[in-house]
């Protein structure tokens, strides 16, 4: 009877070890769920960025309005007869005076 109790105790300990520490343990499952959630957030952000870039590409292919807007924003280009105004934040002025 003692041998049976010892064997059952050993089996119980082995199964508990796998549950708490071994491969597929609760801790590992929790870690993997956390990593999965983080990766899904990254994927969602990248999908939003891809949709934005796709809209931009379509806009640039369709007409000159997209190209003009991109040139104005990225390169600071202006048309003939336009006046460019640059507003500076006094707190961020180079001379350090407010």
Rg to the nearest angstrom?
31 Å
Major beta-sheet overview: none
How much of the polypeptide forms β-strand, as a percent range? Answer: under 5%
Query: What is the count of helical runs?
Result: 3
End-to-end distance, in Å? 89 Å
Structural class assignment? mainly alpha
- The domain count comes to 1
The arrangement of helices and strands along the chain is HHH
Secondary structure: helix percent: 55-70%
Number of beta strands: 0
Q: Which spans have pLDDT < 50 for at least 5 consecutive residues? A: none
* Shape annotation: elongated
Calculate the mean pLDDT score and round it: 84
Describe the model.
- The protein is mainly α and 98 residues long.
- The chain has one domain.
- The chain has 3 helices and no strands.
- It has helices at 2-20, 26-62, 64-75.
- The radius of gyration is 31 Å and the shape is elongated.
- The N and C termini lie far apart (89 Å).
- The mean pLDDT is 84.
